[in-house]
Fold this protein.
Amino acid sequence: MAFWSSTSVFTSKVPRKILFMFTLSLSVTYLFYSLMSCYNSLQFPLQENYAYQGRLVTEETTFVTLREKLYSASQGLAEFTEAEGTTAVSAVRDHAEAEQRTVEWIRTQAAPTKSAAAAAAAAYHTTALEREHQEFSTTDSELRVNCTSDYGEKKLPQAIIIGVKKGGTRALLEALRVHPDVRAVGNEPHFFDRNYEKGLDWYKDLMPSTLEGQITMEKTPSYFVTNHAPKRIHTMARDIKLIIVVRNPVTRAISDYTQTLSKKPEIPTFEVLAFKNRTLGLIDASWSALRIGIYALHLESWMQYFPLSQMHFVSGERLIVDPAGEMAKVQDFLGLKRIVTDKHFYFNKTKGFPCLKKPEDSSTPRCLGKSKGRTHPKIDADLIRRLHKFYKPFNMMFYQMTGQNFEWELEDDRESRSSQD
């Protein structure tokens, strides 16, 4: 009774309107803070999800990580929905733990080096505002790929153009790079002849990123004449595919000399370098320009480590007169669909060899650089005949070893009149 009497006295002294307003304000304030707490709890996982999707995919950021983050975010949303009493503090703690797990995963699983892991972690913390226009797919097939900045993975090459110098290796490589399933290094790495001590990690880092189904390639023509290259390549990958572009060794030697002459105009004439004794007609086979053309000698070293089934020989002459035909054979050898066809080539009469063009338009063809198509110096016809005679037994042996007849002996007269590289 005392309580009710005191309440009656209080209510009698305070106007009912003021009491009603006070009670209403307390109710509104309580409702406001309750709604804010609930809003923060419900929204935080979605904000994290949006922020994560906005980040740029870096070298060590993977689609697997993305799937884990999206899964964590969706699980977090379900938990907040089922437990309305969970506060924003617990959401922050869960987010921090998920963030730490992702960084740890990158450091221990995806990063090939410690420095790369640090870079990946730093890139992971880049703000979503700076990356908000980045988009990527999250299909199951992509989620399993360890991706780099151009959506691929660096791998050691599955195929190498190993030779020969001045045979047409650059033309072949540029034609292959048109194929969407081929990714190749533009420059010659010279790993197996000059940079082997730098290690496979250095070599692999030079490779372009590839997706599943794409082939990683490189070309270094000097491999074919390097004694220790076959063993080193076999040690790296015994099932690798090897491509050798060969050309009439006489024409190839003159082209080789022409290139050297353009860089060193002071060198002796071709005739002086080619002969040990001009009077006796003794050919100097130790001169590198001539030695490279003894293909049978070099091929013997490769056949000690690789079967012929893993080698493909491209005719440098046919690559000029029928580039599409030679490219069809190369694509078959690499297990690729025949995408590079005659519609990709245009014969340039000035240079004397085909140029690449885009098949979908009539844009200007893209030809090889000035170092290709140099005019050959005039060589004495008698020397040309002597060189053909010198190479003939080696050519016959090469035909037998490869099972292919390149018919270079039929070109004796034509080669003596040749004036184009």
User: Anything to note?
Assistant: DSSP finds 17 helices and eleven strands in the chain. Confidence is low (pLDDT under 50) at residues 1-12, 38-96, 101-149.
